[in-house]
Amino acid sequence: MRLGTILPAIGLAIAGFGPLSSLSAVAQDVVGSGADAFAQLGQELPTPNSYRTASGAPGHEYWQQQADYDIDARLDEDARRIDASARIVYTNNSPDALRYLWLQLDQNRFKQDSLDRRSRTVSSDRVSYRNLREHQAVSIGDYGYRNLRFSGEAGEELPFVVVDTMVRVDLPKPLASGQYISFNVEWTFDIIERDTVRSRGGYEQFYESDTQIFFLSQWFPRLAVYSDYDGWHNKAFLGSGEFTLEFGDYDVSLTVPENHVISSTGALANADDVLTEAQKERLAEAGSDKPTFIVTPEEALANEKTKATGTRTWRFEAENVRDFAWASSSKFIWDAMVHEQPGAKHERVYAMSFYPNEAERVWSKYSTQAVVHTMDVYSRFSFDYPYPTAQSVNTWEGGGMEYPMITFNGYRPDPPRANPEDPESAESRAAAELAYSRRIKYGLIGVVIHEVGHIYFPMVVNSDERQWTWMDEGLNTFLEYVAELEWEEDFPAFRRISDPLVNEINVLDMIPEYMMSPNQVPIMTQSDSVLRLGPNAYSKPAAALTVLRETVMGRELFDFAFREYAQRWQFKRPTPADFFRTMEDASGVDLDWFWRSWFYTTDYVDMAITDVRAYRLKHDDPDVDYPLDREEHLRDNPLPVNIARNQAEGIVPREERFQALKDLYSENDRYTVTNKDRNDAADKFDNLEPWEQRAFTKAIEDDNVFYFVDFENLGGVPSPLMLHIKYEDGSERDLEIPAEIWRKDAMKVTHRLIEDKPIAYISLDPRHQTADANYSNNRFPSAIHQSRLSAYKADVVKRNLMADMLHELKDSAKLDSDSGKSAPLKPANAR
């Protein structure tokens, strides 16, 4: 019963269906709704086979292909063009004979008639300046692969067919299982300006110094995947769905202007040819305590001011990687430190950063340290970092992109701003040079952690990003959150950051807004069909894994199972089923209900406490129970208002005025105890079994309070019920009720608590650890929360045409489309 607080009722009779249990759930009459929510995923997941087992591990006949590359590439800085050739050795480890090979030509996405460009949609009738610039660049430029040629080992032409961002190369004879083929490819393409057309690679133009940073990714014809579960992975690249590739060994020679410094996948194989003696010494002396400059800011500034007259070839070797990317510029500062991992294949990993002087105020302080920190944390959750280098390259304003051993990351300090009161003072200039915003600091650290984390997922644990983006972005974002909180407890991990006002919201409080929105699809949606990639592929799966680790499974079970998944599938290609099955296999926890609700539906978490009823056990002694029954009746049934007003008016009932009308019933109410009542109670106790008598007597002595708590699942996602109980004496305790409480009815349940003292209130998920969408229904009895409001004044903007016509014309000019010359701006009706 509800009276504004939880008040113990006077009596609770014992039902005749068995003993009481303080942790049992009393099921509602509604049956069946829980069966669907807790149904096993067997019918949704692919059937286990010899390639992928029911435990989630690779099977005894697991296979994957291999593609090895020897590449020679030349960067033409002035023409902004790549000219390249490669020898590719493709090994068919599948049980199938292959009549043709598919390769990816991702640069073709920038063609004017690409499938990506022709299939784009818009959400409103608007055109931005960025839209205009991108349209103009793609319309004028000749982007995509040109001069493409495939040939066999002896130089014979191999026929091929280009299908948008894919190319099919027809083989002279089927490639049998266990055999390999060696062939050659030549190509060229113009490098896109990244700020003009958003892309994962390209160049950034620094107009004041007429210099560039080139960052080349998805830049060569790459073998598409042929897998046991999908055959050829030849879906077109539409921009959002990334890729999955085959592992192989690379030997890459990159010819660039002589004043350039290169950051690349792999280890530098010809340091004597491209580094000075001082740079080689600095690299050898790099330690594990702080970064060391290999190319100093002063040397980088001198490089970019020097016009290259020749070229230099840098050579890199990479073993067992699934891709290759690189960056080249005359602007690069280069720093390095060592990440030590004793006993690993690479005990000393070089963590390195490359960035221009424009980024120096913050990059030298944080970038390489963040690279090392990422390896520290991620290796603990997975495996030793498997490569000799890990690099962070500053290539654009914000965001990032990952490739094996190299990541492209944004964020630079804002342009210096001097003190307006004394802008020329030395102190003002120094302060301006050293200043950077909170957004830049945490944005940089966060993006470096995220992108370097991707070297683990999916560059080593090689999931299919084009099909299931969440398998790399979601898992990686979850671990990014863990690493950020180990960097700094107040790190705004998974939070919106705005300067100068900071509004920090934990992801578990932020994600319900998306999960409740109509503009969403399940996490298990193919990447290119996701409506809102950010929350669907990043935030929601990361929130799900956070709930799984901190609330559903606990850290010990989760961490062991997650590490088992990473180690099982390093350098292999897992599917969602492999992840789901491994997490259950290694932990011993049935999680099918969790995968179904979080990953296969668009439901959300909203648990509510709808009612609490409190009782004490009846003594079955009428001399004790009847007076308490009377007290309870009077408490719950107040004096009728008409009787109260009669009393107030002095109306005396007739029976009081005429005593002769009174009888036994006038002096005794229904709670008067009789000897028959006493005898019936004694007979009831005597008829109990001895064990029942002992249990009942002990319960009366304990004088516990019985609480029946009603919960409703308003959002559809089953969730553990994390209760905080506050008692009337001021003490408190936490109680976790597992999600299995929803097995018989996924919508409404009642839980019974037996307490030794009265409860003041019960709150649900007070630590905000379940991603609950509405905390206003999470406390019983409810509480009024006081906050503050800001007063505001409406600012109505009105147009005064007469006054506007009298404004003087500024020096701005518009382009005269007829003459191509600048014409002065003037009112449309001016003569």
UniProtKB/TrEMBL annotation:
Annotated signal sequence range: 1-27
The name this protein goes by in its record: M1 family metallopeptidase
Entries under Pfam families matching the protein: Peptidase_M1
GO molecular function terms attached to this record: aminopeptidase activity
Peptidase M1 membrane alanine aminopeptidase domain residues: 441-598
Taxon lineage: Bacteria, Pseudomonadati, Pseudomonadota, Gammaproteobacteria, Cellvibrionales
Organism for this UniProt entry: Congregibacter variabilis
UniProt keyword list: Aminopeptidase, Hydrolase, Protease, Signal
Superkingdom assignment: Bacteria
EC number: 3.4.11.-
Keyword Chloroplast: no
Entries under CDD domains matching the protein: M1_APN_like
Database matches in Gene3D superfamilies: Neutral Protease Domain 2 (1.10.390.10)
